[in-house]
Amino acid sequence: MRQVFRAAKKFLGRGSPEDAFDQGLKAYERGQHKAAFDAWLEAARAGHAKAQHRIGRLYDFGEGVLRNAVDAVGWYRQAAEQGNPDAQARLAEMYYYGCEGAKGLTPTDDALARLFPNGLKIDQDYEEALRWARAAAEQGVVSAQAMLGYMHASGFGIKPDYEEAETWYRRAAEQGNAAAQLGLGTLLAGGYRGKPDPEAARAWFQKAAEQDSPMAWYYLGSQYAAGLGVAQDAAEAAACYRRAADAGSAAAQRALGTLYTRGFGVPQDAGKAETWLRKAAVQGDTEAMVLLGELHSRGHGVQPNLFEAAAWYRGAAELGNRRAQHVIAQMYLAGTGVPKDEMEAARWYERAAGQGDSQAQLRIGAFYAEGRGVDRDYNRAMDWFRRAAEQGNPDAGYNIALFHSLGLGVPRNPATALDWYRRAAEQGSMLAQFRLGAIFASGDGVPQDYKEGAKWSRKAAEQGHTGAQVNLGRFFMQGLGVPQDLAEAERWLTAAAQKKEAAAMVALGELNAIWRPDKDMAQAERWLVQAVELDDDRAKTILEQLRARNATPQDKPGAAMATRMPEAGNGQA
């Protein structure tokens, strides 16, 4: 009898698409995925949307069939176009993130081409993702609502719309979706729609944390650590970070390691700090790698190990961490923890510079200007200096001025040089301030202006520039651009002389021998002798004049001793 029924069923078919769908469900529940596929395929071909969705899932997860994202999308799309919300939601995910082919397969192989004629890969398509996410969200699929909120908040592939993001996040969050609760908290904490609301953010983070969201625990820890929306509580911050760290959050592991480094909320413990930072680092957290580099280079309770530090810095640098690229470049330049290698230093400076590090741009520009680790190339040097200057780096502006002043890679142009010197000086460049002061004092390409010269020399002198201190001392000694003030002159000249600056010693000799009303020849000779010991030719000449004058009295004491005005070559540039 059973054989009769089987024969009749085979002859008459499975019945309606709904019957075939139900039979597929029963087979699937028994773990008979191939039988489920056969039943659902019959219903799907007849236009049954739920069966089409189920066939898509089988291809999506490789149950009863070879896994293939392209075939999965094909069936999902048929179901989605009939309004199936689950298929729409999954389509949105697949288009948003894209789907690679199975690892180890080469789609160009003839056998694979026959097995998968439509290919194996789904490229990202933000427009399609947005279309299907909205369709599913409007039908009430909570995960799609959360995803739609994320898409509008992140702005990947579409223009950010924080109002729309909050709307969809809130719909899903109020229905208990942890991802949406986390996203809504992030929007509120960051003030993306106006003033930050850390208290409201904390409430949503707490709801997500209660659903064991590691990132929610991490954000709660950050709020307790900083006292945002809650009283600062280091111990509570550590407890929250630990919950997230134990769940595998690299950010939380890094944060917990930092707390142990500082002894904030937990006892200071370099060993535990290293353990947690390492857990984050092995997950690819580059900031944790940098912190490990700092830990091993500076000690902080562990035995310093520059080789270990360099390994972590290099690992982070290889993964694109700009700060690590800069540090490892410095280590190669100095030969610290790695062999000294200017070519490697240049390579890492250039990578950091390419990511917008203005100090690295300045340094690699200098490398190209000097031909260190790279072939000398003034054009490339100027390009990097300009990039750094555009970010407000005053030393880069000074270098551009120097290039125009000397005609390196560009036609010599004193006027353009002066503009750049002024711009860099106004931004605080000590070198540019010194150079500008010397230019105005000497009248090099500009009308001589001692007042301007004194103004810029003072700014550089106050930053410790030796040459500027010498020039400023002379301005006060001779009353050039400032009221004559011998005490102030002596103060600045002494500051430079204490740094073994011979020009300052010569000026102090002149100050005591010529400019003081109560001359102190012994003091003058003492300073001049020190300058002579530094092999200063001018000091030798003046000392000889001074001794000759003392041996043969003159009608006009000091007449044979000429003083010197501040000039661009005075002191270190």
Automatic annotation (TrEMBL):
Gene3D superfamilies in the cross-refs: Tetratricopeptide repeat domain
Superkingdom as given in the UniProt entry: Bacteria
Cross-referenced SUPFAM superfamilies: HCP-like
Listed Pfam families: Sel1 (PF08238)
Region (Disordered): 547-573
Record's protein name: Tetratricopeptide repeat protein
Organism: Azospirillum himalayense
